[in-house]
Amino acid sequence: MSATTPQAVPTLPGAPTSSPTAAARTRLGDAIAAEWIKLWSLRSTWWYLGGSAAVVVLTSLLESGDGDPTTPDALTPVLGAVSYFVQYILAVFGIVAITGEIATRSITVTMACTPRRTWIMAAKAIIVGAVVLGASLLVTGGGLLLTAARLGELSLVDGTQAETALAASVYLALLAVFSLGLATLVRRTAGALAVMLLLLLLVPELLRMASERFDAPWINTVGDWTPSPIGWRLMEGEWADGLALLAWAGAAVVAAIWVLRRRDA
Amino acid sequence: MIELTNLTRRYGDKTAVDDLTLRLEPGTVTGFLGPNGAGKSTTMRLILGLDAPTSGTALIGGRRYTDLERPLTTVGALLDAKAVHPGRTGRDHLRAMARSQRIPARRVDEVLERTGMTDAARRRAGTYSLGMSQRLGIAGALLGDPQVLMLDEPVNGLDPDGVTWIRTLLRGLAAEGRTVFVSSHLMSEMQQTADRLVVLGRGQLIADAPMSELLTATGSRVRGPGLEALAERLDDARWTGDDELTVPGVPPEEVGALAHQLGLLLHRLDATEPTLEESYMSLTADAVEYTAGGAA
């Protein structure tokens, strides 16, 4: 992201922009650049990303898998870490990207700088998505290599496994963007995290139980389209299902924009 | 230039700002006074588009704030000094603001220098005193070198040096032809800083006048035995002690002459300085929202 280096900027006051579209692109670009600075100037960012890396590294080193380096099961530790721990860490990362500003009221400064609130939300979604995607690629890729190294078989990391790492990263990125949108609606860190936990852990399980209890398979089908089962299928190579996750994230962001535009700061 | 036209904001059944029409001119410091809850902060939030008006408009140079391109280069505002993420350094806070407006990063160091925050800006904002937060907020308001400055209670938490500094700063900004809009509950401070006063009570405009019109004229304070005769002759005279009268608007020369005429003995006779407090109190007497036992 080149956003950190503001290039030859026109000085004050308003340099006219050629067309409304170009102007909009500029506004969004500036908002993204500002979000980028804000993100990396908080220590907590490093904690979330470093924590995710630590979880993956530790599980890669400690989890034994089935010990057979020739099967895709060698990936188990990495995927386990992603689905059990990292997704929650990065969901909170997405949540605090907005609740951190709401709680400290610094959102008013953001809104004074970027009065078009659509740009604020779009910029946050882009930054959160891109940063989580990048960090997850590093972390899952690193986890794969570590696992392979531990099993003494670096050549183990093939295209399929790289694809799985990419899928896991896409899942985490979209989940973080979804969390951001959801948190904008809920406004509080704890509340948003509670909803995320319910949605990721409890809802699919409850729906599965209800489906069995009432002998209604369609209930289970509904559960299959909540984020975490989609995530599993995504990691199994069902890329088309990823569109459903994109829809979850997109809907949350659109709802967040709608609410942000209507609400008083 | 700020132009408010029939600006109204209701929250439920409470009207925070009630049909406010107002024009703020360049080159002047306009003081914004009013009891707590009078709607001063809400008015400023409406101008910045943080809250939406129920009806009416707030325009800056003919445009709504939300339509401004790079708004900080037109309006610099400090509404809430503590509205900064405590985990971020003051400098990073300003860097992000500057980047969002394409203001060159060196401008951040300039405004930090100007507000005396150069050293503190390397520390996280959570460690700042209220005074330092105010300075950071003022640095943020100055960042875009705007023609309009709007500050909500900027003097809060500043030490006496800081108070003098901000007075000089605001006077200087107005002298450069900028529009300065500043709220405060410190009347003596307002009296020294503002050219013009806007007084709000229960969301409504109570007064909008040049400072000179609102200042009481020089009056007198007189002490001595048997001043009842004097009190009878001076309509506005009030007892401010056992044998002390305060006479607003009547200079000591006249009071002295009258006392002489009445053959009264005076122990003391002084001039009282022109004050804003008195006219402010009488203006807002009916509009005080929160009255604590006899205070306000």
Q: What's the overall geometry of chain A?
A: globular
The secondary-structure class of chain B comes to alpha/beta
Strand order across the biggest sheet of chain B? Answer: 5-6-7-3-8-9
What would the principal axes of the Cα set say about the shape of chain B? Answer: elongated
Q: Helix and strand succession of chain B? A: EEEHEEHHHEHEHEEHEHEEHEH
Low-confidence stretches of chain A: 1-17
Q: Major β-sheet of chain A, in short? A: none
Mean pLDDT of chain B: 91
- The quaternary organization reads as heterodimer
CATH architecture of the largest domain in chain B: 3-Layer(aba) Sandwich
The CATH class designation of the largest domain in chain B is: Alpha Beta
Helix content of chain A: over 70%
| Number of alpha- plus pi-helical segments of chain A | 10
The domain tally of chain B reads 2
Mean pLDDT of chain A: 86
Structural notes for this entry:
The complex is a heterodimer of chains A (265) and B (296). Chain A has helices at residues 20-40, 43-62, 76-104, 107-113, 117-150, 159-186, 189-213, 217-224, 227-235, 242-262. Chain A is mostly helical. Chain A has one domain. The model of chain A is unreliable at 1-17 (pLDDT under 50). Chain B has 296 residues and is an alpha/beta fold. Helix content of chain B is 31%, strand content 26%. Chain B is built from 10 helices and 13 strands.
